[in-house]
C-alpha cells in the first residue's frame, strides 16, 4: 500500500503543504489544480519541489466536464485536455483524474461517453499519459462507480482506467460487492475519505465535511478491503475537503492523515482475502483493562490543597516513593499519585500548565506490544532516567503533551508500586472510606479542532470505539463531547472540544496553556452511602440549583422522597434504556479542575442532559463574578 494525499486536504501555501506531506511520511501527493494555479512558479518548479522532498506526484486533478459533450462543445473540450496534458508532462505525472460531467449541456449515453474516453486515451497514449475516470456522487449522468466502470470497460483502452473515491460510493450507499469484480489493473488509483453521517445535499457534504478514514461514520474499511480483495496494491490517496482542516495546523492534519491510512491498512490486512495489501506489520489494537493510576504534578502548596481534597474524598496516603517526591493515594482500585519533584518531566509540566493530572497510566494486556503499535502509528515515545532498580514504565505523549503510561502484569510493570514505593507512615485514621471503587471515566478538554486528532489517536492504538458526538450546553457557548470507550467500560475517555474561552472548558484550556484532563470520575456502588461518608470527611459537594429537582422529579416520574434525597445531597440524576445514573461533583480546584462521583446501574452514557446545570454551578462557585472574557 502506497500512501498519498491531495494538496486540497490541508491548509497553507503549496510549498508548506508539500513539506508537511513529506514530513508526515507520505509516498505521494495529488496536485490539486487550484493549488498549482495559485502558486507563483512553473509546473517544472512544482515537479522539482515535489521530487526534492522525496515525493511522487500521483495525479493531477480535477479535469471537469469532459464526457458526453454535444458536438458544439466537443472540440473545445479536447483542446482543453491537451493543455492539461502539457502541464502534466512538465509537472512529471502521468495520471489525470477526470470527474464525471456536471454540465447541463452534457449528453448521456454510455457508448457516447465510452467513445469520448477512447479518443482521450489515444491522445494520452501519444504522450505516455493515463486517464482515470471518477464518478462524482452528483454527476449529471454518471454518479455511480458501476456506471463509470462500464464506460471505462467499453472505452477499452489501455490508457483509460477507473478511479474509485470512497466518499462518492459510500455517500450513495452503493453496494461495495460491485468492486470485487473489477480487474485490479483497471483501477488506476483509489481516493479515500470518511465523513460524519449528516443528512444533507451530497455536494455540500462532500466539499465541507469529509474527514480522515476512521474519523467519520462511513464504512471505509469495508470499502478498502473490497479493493484489496481485487489484488490492487497501489496508491491509496486521501482527498479530504474539510473546512476545519483548511484552517487547521498543516503539519498536524497531515500527520493525522498518515496515521489514518496506516491504521486503515492494518485493519484491512486482517480481513480475509485482503492479506495481500503491503502494510507494515504491527501488533493488533491493545485491550485496556483499566486505569492503573492517574498522576498529578503540583508544587508544595497546591499539593497540600489537592491532598486535602483527596482525603475528603476518602483517599488514604498508602505509599511514598523511595527516591522521588511522589506520594501514592489509594481507595478501592483507584490509585492517584501526587508528584512534587523539582526537576524532570512532571516539574516541566507543572511549570507550563500549573497543577494538573498530567499523566494517566492504562493497564493493558501487553505494554510492549501497545508501545510498538503506538510508535508504528506515529505516537511519540517518552522516557526519562529512573534510579537503579526502579521500574521503567513505557510511555507515549498524549493530549496536551501529557503522558500515557502503559502497564501490564506480564512483567514487573504491574508491581511498580511495590518496587518503587515504601509504605507511608501516616495512618490517615480520620479518613472515612467513601466506597469509591474505580475510575469511571477521564474527561479531557481539548480545543475543538483537536478533537478528531485525539479520537483517531485513541481508537487506532487501543481496542475502543467512539460514540456519537453530543452537544454540551454551557451558559456561554456549546462544547462538543465525544467518547472513546471499550465494551467492558475499562476505558472511558470523554473528549470535550471547546470553541470559545468563555465556556468552562474553553477557560480551562486558556488558563492551563493547553489541553488536558479536566475532571476525573470515580465509580461508587452506592451514591448515598458515598455522600454520607463524604460529609463525615468534610467534603463540600457542588451545590445544585433547587429548581433542577422539581424538573427531574417530573421528567422521570421520580418518587418525591427520592428527589428530596437527591436534592439534600446535590446529586444529579439521569436514566436511559440500560438503567439509572447518579452524579455528585466536587467544586473546582485551580482553573476549573474537578472530581465527579457516579453510580451507574446499567446506564451507558455520561449524563449529558445534566451538564448545563453542573457547568452553571461550577462557574458560579469558581468565579461568582463570572469568567472574564479576555
Ligand atoms: O468536489 C469536487 O468537485 C470533486 C473534484 C474532484 C474529486 O476527485 C472529487 O472527489 C470531488
Ligand atoms: Mg475524488
From TrEMBL:
Q: Gene3D superfamilies in the record, alphabetically?
A: 2,3-Dihydroxybiphenyl 1,2-Dioxygenase, domain 1 (3.10.180.10), Divalent-metal-dependent TIM barrel enzymes (3.20.20.150)
Which protein is depicted?
Answer: 3-dehydroshikimate dehydratase
Question: What is catalyzed by this enzyme?
Answer: 3-dehydroshikimate = 3,4-dihydroxybenzoate + H2O
Q: Which family does it belong to?
A: Belongs to the bacterial two-domain DSD family.
Q: In which pathway does it act?
A: Aromatic compound metabolism; 3,4-dihydroxybenzoate biosynthesis
Explain the purpose of this protein. Catalyzes the conversion of 3-dehydroshikimate to protocatechuate (3,4-dihydroxybenzoate), a common intermediate of quinate and shikimate degradation pathways.
Q: Which UniProt keywords apply?
A: Lyase, Metal-binding
Main EC class the enzyme belongs to: lyase
Q: Where does the VOC domain start and stop, copy by copy?
A: 290-409, 438-587
Q: Where does Mg(2+) bind?
A: 441, 519, 596
Cofactors required: a divalent metal cation
Q: Where does this protein hold a divalent metal cation? A: 134, 165, 191, 239
The cross-references to InterPro entries, in alphabetical order and at most eight, read: 4OHPhenylPyrv_dOase_N (IPR041736), DSD (IPR043700), Glyas_Bleomycin-R_OHBP_Dase (IPR029068), Glyas_Fos-R_dOase_dom (IPR004360), IolE/XylAMocC-like (IPR050312), VOC_core (IPR037523), Xyl_isomerase-like_sf (IPR036237), Xyl_isomerase-like_TIM-brl (IPR013022)
Q: Does the keyword Lyase apply?
A: yes
Give the source species: Rhizobium oryzicola
Listed EC numbers: 4.2.1.118
Amino acid at each position: 500500500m502506497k500512501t498519498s494525499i491531495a494538496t486540497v486536504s490541508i491548509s497553507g501555501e503549496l510549498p508548506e503543504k508539500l513539506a508537511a506531506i513529506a514530513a508526515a511520511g507520505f509516498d505521494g501527493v495529488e496536485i490539486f489544480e487550484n493549488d498549482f494555479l495559485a502558486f507563483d512558479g512553473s509546473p517544472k518548479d512544482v515537479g522539482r519541489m515535489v521530487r526534492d522532498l522525496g515525493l511522487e506526484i500521483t495525479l493531477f486533478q480535477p479535469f471537469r466536464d469532459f464526457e458526453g459533450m454535444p458536438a458544439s462543445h466537443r472540440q473545445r473540450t479536447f483542446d482543453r485536455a491537451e493543455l492539461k496534458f502539457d502541464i502534466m508532462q512538465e509537472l512529471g505525472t502521468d495520471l489525470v483524474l477526470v470527474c464525471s460531467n456536471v454540465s447541463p449541456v452534457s449528453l448521456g449515453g454510455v457508448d457516447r461517453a465510452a467513445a469520448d474516453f477512447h479518443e482521450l486515451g489515444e491522445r494520452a497514449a501519444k504522450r505516455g499519459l493515463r486517464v482515470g475516470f471518477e464518478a462524482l456522487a452528483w454527476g449529471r449522468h454518471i454518479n455511480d462507480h458501476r456506471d463509470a466502470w462500464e464506460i471505462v470497460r467499453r472505452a477499452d483502452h489501455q490508457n483509460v482506467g477507473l478511479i474509485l473515491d470512497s466518499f462518492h460510493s459510500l455517500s450513495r450507499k452503493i453496494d461495495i460487492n460491485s468492486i470485487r469484480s473489477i480487474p485490479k489493473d483497471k483501477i488506476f488509483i483509489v481516493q479515500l475519505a470518511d465523513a460524519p453521517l449528516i443528512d444533507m445535499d451530497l455536494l455540500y457534504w462532500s466539499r465541507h465535511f469529509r474527514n480522515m478514514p476512521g474519523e467519520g461514520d462511513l464504512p471505509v474499511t469495508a470499502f478498502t478491503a473490497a479493493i484489496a480483495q481485487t489484488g490492487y496494491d497501489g496508491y491509496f490517496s486521501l482527498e479530504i475537503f474539510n473546512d476545519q482542516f483548511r484552517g487547521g495546523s498543516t503539519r498536524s492534519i497531515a500527520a493525522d492523515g498518515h496515521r489514518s491510512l496506516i491504521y486503515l491498512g492494518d485493519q484491512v490486512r486482517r480481513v480475509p482475502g485482503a492479506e495481500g495489501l503491503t502494510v507494515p506489520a504491527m501488533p493488533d489494537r491493545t485491550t485496556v483493562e483499566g486505569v492503573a493510576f492517574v498522576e498529578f504534578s503540583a508544587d508544595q502548596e497546591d499539593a497540600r490543597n489537592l491532598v486535602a481534597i483527596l482525603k475528603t474524598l476518602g483517599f488514604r496516603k498508602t505509599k511514598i516513593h523511595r527516591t522521588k517526591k511522589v506520594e501514592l493515594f489509594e481507595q478501592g482500585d483507584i490509585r492517584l499519585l501526587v508528584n512534587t519533584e523539582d526537576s524532570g518531566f512532571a516539574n516541566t509540566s507543572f511549570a507550563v500548565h500549573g497543577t494538573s493530572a498530567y499523566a494517566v497510566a492504562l493497564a493493558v494486556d501487553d505494554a510492549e506490544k501497545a508501545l510498538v503499535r503506538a510508535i508504528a502509528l506515529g505516537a511519540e515515545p517518552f522516557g526519562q532516567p529512573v534510579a537503579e532498580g526502579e521500574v521503567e514504565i513505557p510511555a507515549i505523549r498524549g493530549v496536551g503533551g501529557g503522558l500515557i503510561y502503559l502497564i501490564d502484569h506480564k512483567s514487573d510493570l504491574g508491581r511498580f508500586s511495590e518496587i518503587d514505593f515504601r509504605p507511608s507512615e501516616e495512618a490517615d485514621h480520620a479518613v472515612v472510606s467513601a466506597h469509591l471503587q474505580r475510575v469511571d471515566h477521564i474527561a479531557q478538554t481539548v480545543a475543538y479542532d483537536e478533537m478528531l486528532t485525539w479520537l483517531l489517536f485513541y481508537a487506532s492504538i487501543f481496542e475502543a470505539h467512539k460514540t456519537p458526538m453530543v452537544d454540551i450546553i454551557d451558559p456561554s457557548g456549546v462544547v462538543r463531547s465525544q467518547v472513546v470507550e471499550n465494551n467492558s467500560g475499562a476505558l472511558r475517555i470523554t473528549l470535550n472540544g471547546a470553541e470559545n474561552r468563555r465556556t468552562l472548558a474553553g477557560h480551562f484550556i486558556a488558563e492551563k496553556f493547553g489541553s488536558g484532563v479536566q475532571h476525573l470520575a470515580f465509580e461508587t456502588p452506592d451514591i448515598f452511602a458515598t455522600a454520607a461518608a463524604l460529609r463525615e470527611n468534610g467534603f463540600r459537594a457542588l451545590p445544585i440549583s433547587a429548581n433542577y429537582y422539581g424538573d427531574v422529579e417530573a421528567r422521570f416520574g421520580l418518587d418525591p422522597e427520592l428527589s428530596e434525597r437527591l436534592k439534600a445531597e446535590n446529586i444529579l440524576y439521569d436514566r436511559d434504556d440500560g438503567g439509572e445514573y447518579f452524579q455528585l461533583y466536587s467544586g473546582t480546584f485551580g482553573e476549573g479542575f474537578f472530581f465527579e462521583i457516579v453510580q451507574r446501574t446499567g446506564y451507558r452514557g455520561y449524563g449529558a442532559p445534566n451538564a448545563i446545570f453542573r457547568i452553571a454551578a461550577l462557574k458560579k462557585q469558581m468565579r461568582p463574578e463570572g469568567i472574564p472574557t479576555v
